[in-house]
Specification:
The longest helix has 15 residues. Helix 7 packs across helix 12. The protein folds into two domains: 139 residues, 3-Layer(aba) Sandwich (Rossmann fold), CATH 3.40.50.2000; 181 residues, Glycogen Phosphorylase B (Rossmann fold). The strands form two sheets. It has a six-stranded parallel sheet with strand order 8-7-6-9-10-11, with helices on both faces. A five-stranded parallel sheet has the order 3-2-1-4-5, sandwiched between helices. 34% of the residues lie in helices and 14% in strands. With 351 residues, the chain is α/β, with parallel strands linked by helices.
Length: 351
């Protein structure tokens, strides 16, 4: 275990995860580094498509964003890292490129989980739990904090995720909600039917369509569909199949940063097991998660206002992007079941 100087004023680099949900679940790690190194300059290196999630965050003195999947992007990020001259880096993703950018950026001490084939490019770190046979899965938040624990760092008082909204992000959301004709007193329910991971995580569009009808008939609520890049067809199909009055936000420029105040405005979010569920947790918004192929242990934190609906099948959890069977893990979750859980959450957590 290396010794780290807690009084250091040297710059530190944190390489953030690449997935939306993981970026949010790593928030306690960012907070931990900031609290343990209050005098350091702390910089976050992150892929550009998820960088907006961290807008307004108080843990960093700067953000270095780009795309390290291309050679040109990798070299550009490395150049930016050299500019801020961090002496120490903590690498959270498992990718080879995430280590290489710090290495080429001239960082002298690079720490990450040990995995086969990556050892040459970093200084030290604990063995990745997936490399130890029989190690049970832990939540992603705990996984990242365990890296900090390996150094003997003091854990933060709170390990809840936290997100911040900038004034431009809030102004955008307020204008959009005004355009949609949504008044401040109206109940808003968000539907998030996509998943960047793959189709195996997606509940059926016809189920979302039927659920929207049930919710609107009972609650007279406003319903927003949130859909990211490549999810426009799913959102359109739900809208076309449903007799509910659904507002499809797909073409309205709602980026990952602008999505934050939109979800904060919701009274309830109903979503597949994907990134925006963690926005809801960060903002204290009740959320129903429809989970299929993934192991709930990886997201088993801060579920006070969360209901996870999941069927335990012989083939689950498979963690496959595309279901090789009949997608039973999602098909056997009915709109009626989700509706009942949604109503129970709304009753419990009325605004």
């Amino acid at each position: 275990m290396p010794e780290l100087d807690l009084k250091t004023s040297e710059n530190i680099l944190i390489r953030a995860p690449n997935w939306v949900g993981d970026v949010v679940m790593a928030v306690p790690f960012y907070r931990c580094i900031r609290e343990n190194f209050p005098h350091a300059g702390i910089y976050c290196c992150i892929r550009d498509y998820v960088s907006g999630i961290l807008n307004g965050s108080p843990w960093f003195d700067g953000i270095i964003s780009g795309n390290d999947k291309t050679l040109a992007g990798l070299m550009a990020i490395s150049k930016e890292i050299r500019r801020v001259r961090p002496k120490t880096a903590f690498i959270l993703p498992r990718s080879f490129n995430s280590l290489l950018t710090a290495y080429l950026g001239g960082v002298k001490r690079i720490y990450s989980y040990k995995q086969k084939g990556r050892g040459f490019f970093f200084t030290d770190g604990p063995i990745h739990p997936k490399a130890i046979k029989g190690t049970p899965p832990v939540s992603t938040t705990t996984h990242y904090l365990n890296l900090a624990k390996w150094f003997g760092l003091k854990m933060p008082d709170s390990i809840r995720p936290e997100l911040f909204i900038t004034r431009p992000e809030m102004a955008f959301a307020e204008e959009k909600l005004k355009t949609y004709g949504i008044a401040g007193h109206e109940m808003v329910i968000g539907l998030n039917p996509g998943a960047r991971f793959g189709s195996s995580k997606c509940w059926m569009p016809e189920y979302f369509a039927r659920l929207a009808e049930m919710l609107q008939n009972r609650l007279n609520c406003r319903i927003l569909i949130f859909a990211g890049p490549g999810e426009g067809e799913i959102a359109a199909e739900i809208q076309n199949r449903s007799r509910a009055d659904i507002i499809n936000t797909f073409n309205d420029g709602i980026t990952l940063s602008r999505l934050k105040p939109m979800i904060q405005r919701c009274d309830l979010l109903i979503t597949n097991d994907t990134g925006p569920r963690h926005y809801a947790v960060a903002f204290g918004v009740p959320v129903v998660v429809i989970m299929g192929p993934t192991d709930p242990a990886y997201t088993n934190d801060h579920l006070e206002k969360t209901v996870v609906i999941r069927k335990e099948l012989d083939c689950s959890p498979c963690h496959l992007e595309t279901c090789p069977k009949n997608h039973e893990c999602m098909k056997t979750i009915t709109p009626e079941e989700v509706f009942d859980q949604a109503m129970a959450l709304l009753e419990k957590y009325k605004k």
